[in-house]
Amino acid sequence: MTESRDLLRQAEHQCQARGARFTPIRRRVLELIAEAPGGLKAYDLLDRLAAEHAAARPPTVYRALEFLIDQGLVHRIESLNAYVACPCPEHSHGFQLLICRRCGRVEELHLDDVNDQLADRARELGFRVERQTIELLGRCEACPDA
Length: 146
What we know:
By secondary structure, the protein is of the alpha+beta class. It folds into two domains: 2-85, Arc Repressor Mutant, subunit A; 96-138, 2-Layer Sandwich (Dna Ligase, domain 1), CATH 3.30.1490. Helix content is 45%, strand content 16%. The chain has helices spanning 2-18, 24-35, 42-52, 58-70, 112-124, and strands at 40-41, 74-77, 82-85, 96-100, 106-109, 134-138. A three-stranded antiparallel beta sheet has the order 1-3-2. Helix 1 runs antiparallel to helix 2 (24-35), helix 2 packs across helix 4 and helix 3 packs across helix 4 (58-70). The longest helix has 17 residues, at 2-18. It comes from Halomonas shengliensis. Keywords: Cytoplasm, DNA-binding, Iron, Metal-binding, Repressor, Transcription, Transcription regulation, Zinc. Homodimer. Its main location: cytoplasm. This is Ferric uptake regulation protein.
């Protein structure tokens, strides 16, 4: 719970510093994602939000998610079509995600040398990277082989 509060406080300060509006809905969406043990799918998020706000609709959730992603506060897990809170939004470089297929735990890595190598090679090939997602699927140490 303290981690979630710290994350929200940090998000609020970051948005304020950037002049971005951290509305109550955006804040609540981030809070719900941060409270989820692993990634949270958009429609699960909508169900939770609709229980609190009868007017919540898919566009509301998707606009909030887009804002949170643009601010670096949330990452989309492509392979799961889910969203996870970024534990260190002040880190402006690329990231990699370790995803446990068994329990859903997600850990974020910041191996800048990996990102730099990929960007350099793409540039050498005349390719302009617009978005990068690196996900490693496997099992965390807490999940036994079965």
